[in-house]
Amino acid sequence: MQRSLISLAVMALLGFSAGSPTLVAAAPAAKSAQATTQLPRTAVPTHYAVSLTPDAANSSFSASVTIALEIKQATSSLTLNAADLKFSAAAISAGPGKATQAASKIEVDADKQTATFQFAEQLKPGSYQLKLDYTGVIGTQASGLFSLDYDNGGAKKRALYTQFENSDARRMIPSWDEPFYKATFALEATIPAGQMAVSNMPVASTTKLADGRELVRFATSPKMSTYLLFFGLGEFERATAVQDGVELGVVTQKGALGQAQFALDSSRDVLKEYNDYFGVKYPLPKLDNIAAPGQSQFFSAMENWGAIFTFEYSILLDPRVATQSNKEISFLVAAHEMAHQWFGDLVTMAWWDDLWLNEGFASWMESRTTTRLHPEWKWELRAVGTREGAMERDALATTHPIVQRIATVEQASQAFDSITYSKGESVIRMLESYVGEDAWRAGVRSYIAKHAYGNTVSDDLWREVEKAAHKPVTAIAHDFTLQPGVPLIRVSDAVCKNGKTTIQLTQGEFSKDQENKKPLSWRVPVIAQTVGGATVRAVVSGGKASMTLPGCGAVLVNAGQSGYYRTLYTPKSFAALAGSFATMPTIDQLGLLSDSWSLGMAGLMPASSFMDLANNAPVDAAPQVWQKIAGVLAGLHDSYEGKPEQRAALDRFTRARLAPVFARVGWTAGKDEAAPVANLRETLIRALGEVGDEAVIAEARRRYAASATDKTAMPAALRRPILGVIASNADVATWEQLHAAAKAEQSSMIKSELYGLLGAAEDKALAQRALDLALTDEPGVTTAPALIGRVSGSHPDLAFDFAVANHEKVDKIVDIASRSRYFPGLGGRSADPAMIGKLQAYARQYLPADAQGDTKTAIASIEYRIKVRSKRLPEIDAWLKQHAG
């Protein structure tokens, strides 16, 4: 490992030139007719030569760009995307040495985010170079070119980064800022001496200028979409390693490089795995992961080709605070963003309709890779939780298909949701199980090789998988990606005869808020077995199927939990499964818990069914099972807001169930403790603290007080859960103590975390103090919106009302891409009917019609929460009286 910029030797080894566009064999791009565009189709860019001079101190930049382009049909104007840019000159020529024609008029449309350049003489079809000189703004939120201020060793520092997805490259470069318009990029930047500049490609040359600054030129990139371009500048350090001829790097603020070793080691392992899986080697000479202070309400990491951007909290491991779950997150983020280097960067969706091709696949790949490279984490069991996250959203009337029609920038921003990510991942998992791992990988390899450096739509992937699998993948894939919703498989009572069990399956649709909805039709791959018996596969088509299973006994449908559907058993069949719960594989225990909870809350089976399973779960059940039970019971605790007597009864039951499990786990990790046990300890401390377990709260307070003089009292593995308990149960003195710690903290990452804790107080007066603090300069512009969001966890109405009352101030500190979802997200946690009207009023006043999707979903969630409180909680109350006293 060496702390240096990538050597040109590595770059030359892989055939990249420092001075001219890279020559690569590219597959033909998808036909233009397949790609949506908001720009005239008169011209296509092929290369951008960008010269950038940032002025970080004054939050501005000057720049010029020369764009090589092909004009396809005669025109007297060119329209590009541009936002918050001011143009001083524009001219076009047919190439070097050819006559130059200055633009006769420049028209900027701020609403459409375009700039149109008019020319007196018509431009005939052919090759041209368009040169533009302009200035722009360096923002404070993660959109376009932006700055992040942070403390480093007691000194105030400022670093610059870019975030261009989905449509913000236009804030730094006037461009055809749409994924279909791929081009090569040659970037140079004039920077202060002593700072490090980072981009997608290695530094090709550095020239010292007469005024003391430096001109840094980067090698030319391969052909790629504008949203993948990256530039970073600051007082950085870089650690490197080489894997398969590629130089891997992690870039951090000075002094934090030691926290990046796990991320660097993980990158080596993941790159080796992906080079093998995809069958196409990573094509760039280097791959950096740039860790930045602060946070965003929109994203935690971004897959810029060769220069992944990640916020520090998602990738660095500070030994003072890092837990097992932080280690897992660091690996997951690296695996996700590195998967994008193929799915998204090398092969890119033609338009945002198919965003899931990027995000769903990267999410699936991260899970698959984590399971393979860290089997000790038992990550395969997380598949059920991923599916549940998708179904919670997908079962509401406001859901949308995985492949959805995107017409505007606002709609593209809202497409980054659990349907795109988690449902996309879950459907891929189901389809891979249906065709088999080998056939699936063969299809993926063919897809990547065929469309490298090009653009695709979903059917391009299905076509290659179907060829490899010789199964009707496309029809099933269309059912699950082109229409919304969650299939419901109803299972009849089993009939056992001659050692075989026969069941009848009927397909409906699971909905949380449309009780009489006519179900859509899916072709559903199903795996079933009698518990402990061999599995049998079938496809439910036309709404019905019959299956014969070897053996007799309790019948389990969706065995292995690869299917994206809910399973509803008859009371008799469910009772048989509940009786076999302890002998079922852990993943199927999680599936049964999840289905029983969601179906019970929707009124399709007794709401108490989950409580029966939780009550009878053995104390030595897998850690993941107890994490699921603890999570549901803690969420149920929140549902009892305003019902103190009923909440107290639930909390007594929760403590009675979880305390014996925590007694087995203990406060201190055992020798060679399994990773899932460490995660369970965190979960149990938080859950028991939330439901008022006096012993846990007292011990958390004791350890917190002792930590002032005894660093072993609150080790890294316990620090976050202990502080969570302390913060949520804080009185005025404790809150002020946490506040003082936040102000004094030197680490930017830990400082941000401590400020967030100030918003966790259950005490309403302290929550208000946190809100007031958020609008001061003290927490920092990226921490402030997170602090308000933290308050909304316990006080959604208070947080929403505060944010709307201070809309102008709050709007300025929220990412541009997050604004249409941030405010609804605050109020969406409410169970007060009045919040529905507030959200509707907010949307009418502040959001265009095409940006109200998240508001509608927040309203649907509130309506469902109200229904649960009125119709389902009484069933839970009755069960608690009978079973918990």
TrEMBL record:
Its cofactor is Zn(2+). Pfam families: ERAP1_C, Peptidase_M1, Peptidase_M1_N. Residues 262-479 form the Peptidase M1 membrane alanine aminopeptidase domain. The keyword Manganese does not apply. Residues 44-228 form the Aminopeptidase N-like N-terminal domain. Keywords: Aminopeptidase, Hydrolase, Metal-binding, Metalloprotease, Protease, Signal, Zinc. GO terms for molecular function: alanyl aminopeptidase activity; metalloaminopeptidase activity; peptide binding; zinc ion binding. Its EC number is 3.4.11.-. One of its GO terms (cellular component) is cytoplasm. Coiled coil: none annotated. It catalyses: Release of an N-terminal amino acid, Xaa-|-Yaa- from a peptide, amide or arylamide. Xaa is preferably Ala, but may be most amino acids including Pro (slow action). When a terminal hydrophobic residue is followed by a prolyl residue, the two may be released as an intact Xaa-Pro dipeptide. The record marks Y421 as: Transition state stabilizer. PANTHER family: PROTEASE M1 ZINC METALLOPROTEASE, PUROMYCIN-SENSITIVE AMINOPEPTIDASE-RELATED. This is Aminopeptidase. It comes from Duganella alba.
